[in-house]
Amino acid sequence: MHLSNKSKIYIINDADPVDAICPTCGFFAREKSDLISIEKEAACKECTLNFKYLDIDAWKEGCRPTKKAARLKMLINVGDI
Predict the structure, then answer these.
(1) Less Cβ around it within 10 Å: N or C end of the chain?
(2) CB-side exposure of 50: number of CA atoms within 13 Å?
(3) Within a domain: residue 81?
(4) Position 43 pLDDT exceeds 90
(5) 8 A C-beta contact, residue 74 and residue 50
């Protein structure tokens, strides 16, 4: 159902809510594909692409890298993680 109010469009969706934070790296979803990946893979799109195909069998069993490893792969300062 779409509602419109001048320049704003409100979309009302009956779907179940999806967590907007990647459980692997801990960052907020950046786009819709991240939300889909978090729901399907338990990791954002970038974490999925960076880690899934390195060991697909372990990934299918639910193994995910640590938050520190995920952020290091993204070349983000991991400071106090």
Answers:
(1) N
(2) 18
(3) no
(4) yes
(5) yes
